Amino acid sequence: MLDLKIIRKNSDKIKEAIKNKNESVDLDKLLSLDIKHRKLQTELDSMRHKKNKVSEEIAQSKRDGKDEVEKIQQMKKVSQDIKRLEKEEKEINEEIKSMLVWIPNIPHNSVPVGKNSSFNKIIRETPREKPTFTFLPHWQLAEVNKLVDFRRGAKVSGTNFPCFTGMGARLERALINFMLDTHISNGYKEIFSPFLVNRNAMFGTGQLPKLEEDMYLVEKDDMFLNPTGEVPITNLYRDETIKDENLPLKLVGYTACFRREAGSYGKDTKGLQRVHQFNKVELVKITEPSTSYEELETLTQDAEKILKLLKLPYRVMLLSTGDLSFASAKTYDLEVWAPGSEKFFEVSSISNFEDFQARRANIRMKKTGKLVYSHTLNGSGLATPRTFIAILENYQQEDGSIRIPSALIPYMGGLEIIEEK
RNA sequence: GGAGAGGUGGCCGAGUUGGCUGAAGGCAACCGCCUGCUAAGCGGUUGAACCCUUAACCGGGUUCCGUGGGUUCAAAUCCCACCCUCUCCGCCA
User: Fold this and answer.
1) Nearest 5 degrees, angle CA A107-CA A258-CA A364?
2) Looking at strand B, which nucleotides approach a protein CB closer than 7 A?
3) CA gyration radius for chain A?
4) Which of A89-98, A128-137, A165-174, A222-231 has the highest mean pLDDT?
5) Interhelix angle for A11-20 vs A27-63, to 10°?
6) For residue A128, which of A346, A307, A302 has the smallest C-alpha distance?
């Protein structure tokens, strides 16, 4: 959410941001409602002022033992008028608020302007080797080595609920533990959060109201299945003022993530590319405003470190305005190369939300005695399914077996090669 | 699920015969004084959001005692609904 005061003063800039992010909000309507609202509020305030003053006088008279029949009668009328105006004020205010939550965050100056992902910019890229034999895609490798049971996963849940089995399950668990350990030793504090989150949390990080359709809702309790670790972890600090000496807060947590992926059937759904339930290790930072862009760079490097240690080829993309999420001001995507699928897969989106989430979630800090909204950032470090894909496809051998990246061997109980058994 | 207790400022904690309580008292923090240093002591300051005004500071005003309604000239205080926390019992693991 943006500050209404800032919207007033920078309406042109906001309009441009809305356009560049492919959103549509009638900002002029909002601005005229705002003017109307402020006028009403000023009027109301002066009426209340009068009411308070006269009530005070009545109280004084009562104490002196005098009756103030006329004043009471007069105030009766004023109170009614106030109530009427309050109702009107409330309605307009609600309308303003409901429009405000649909205004996206403003992209940072360094973000390339463009309609869609084709305007994204490659920031850096690691070299990749040409396959020396015919590389298989991961779903074949997973099947040959019995690592994922798609059929039985679908039986107990539904399509795109993969079930990891045997060494596949072990590899999934190894990835999670390896990532957590790496980030913890890098100064992040481990969090193991709840997986069901309430509406306030979903609103706080900006998933609601825009993305409600993409979430699993437990209707009976009006709770959502966690769509990404940023929701429970960032919202841990909702409605709190964090002591500035504790900033930046660096948090890491494993979460299972659930997404409906509504409308994406048939698109990139083969194997583990796009699934309804997956695992993720999430990095969250809460920082003071002046350092958030430096923190974005180091956060990106911290996530990248996982790919480096796993020796997977990847590239870092700077998202253009059209590809930027609703709440983000600037985002880097990490894309891992999968030679069997001959595709790059997004394994992490690292974003600076500036104070957009903090304003919604009311996360503040004291800076030289003044309360300000802190900045929030997050990024996956990493999402496992596509990392899993990349390992299978990059580490496959001609006979269909898969080598284990050296960093993961200790997490695989010393196992160096996965072979069909 | 049942029974009870409770939700007040950064924290603790008064305040339920409605009015002088944005809120006593304490703690913490900050500023000053005092002291050879430390501790203690003395005086003062310290909530948030919003509106008007201002280049900004200042200033003026409104709102806020879990949330939302209601009663009243007037509500932290009375009434209704809801939410949350804690304790005990039951149930499930």
Assistant:
1) 45
2) 10, 19-20, 48-52, 60-63, 69-70, 72-74
3) 27
4) A165-174
5) 130
6) A307
Measured from Cα to the C1' atom, the residue closest to B62 is A45
Residues A164-180: pLDDT tens digits? 999 999 999 999 999 99
- Could you list the active site residues of A? 259, 274, 346, 349, 386
* Separation between Cα atoms, residue A199 and residue A212, nearest integer Å: 10
pLDDT average, residue stretch A98-121? 94
Residues ≥6 apart with Cβ < 8 Å to A287: A247, A248, A249, A295, A374, A375, A376, A377
Sign of the CA dihedral running A259, A262, A267, A269: positive
User: Amino acid identity of A263?
Assistant: G
The model's pLDDT over A111-163, given as tens digits with 9 standing for 90+, comes to: 999 999 999 999 999 999 888 999 999 999 999 999 999 999 999 999 899 99
Strand locations in A201-290, DSSP E?
Answer: 217-218, 223-225, 240-242, 249-258, 277-287
The protein residue nearest nucleotide B63, judged by CA to C1', is: A45
Would the ipTM clear 0.90, i.e. be above it?
A: no
Alpha-carbon separation of residue A240 from A188, A234, A308, A365 (angstroms)? 20, 11, 36, 8
Question: Which structural domains are found in chain A, ordered by start?
Answer: 4-100 (1.10.287.40), 117-418 (3.30.930.10)
The nucleotide lying nearest A72 (C-alpha to C1') is: B73
* A59: nearest nucleotide, CA–C1' criterion: B19
The Cα–Cα gap between A290 and A288 comes to 6
Contacts of A412 (CB under 8 A, 6+ apart): A167, A170, A171, A174, A404
3-state helix, strand, coil in chain A (%, to 5): 45, 20, 35
**Protein residues with Cβ atoms closer than 7 angstroms to any atom of nucleic acid strand B:** A 3-5, 38, 41-42, 44-46, 48-49, 51-55, 58-59, 62-63, 72, 75-76, 78-79, 83, 90, 241, 371
Find the Å distance, CA of residue A82 to C1' of nucleotide B42: 49
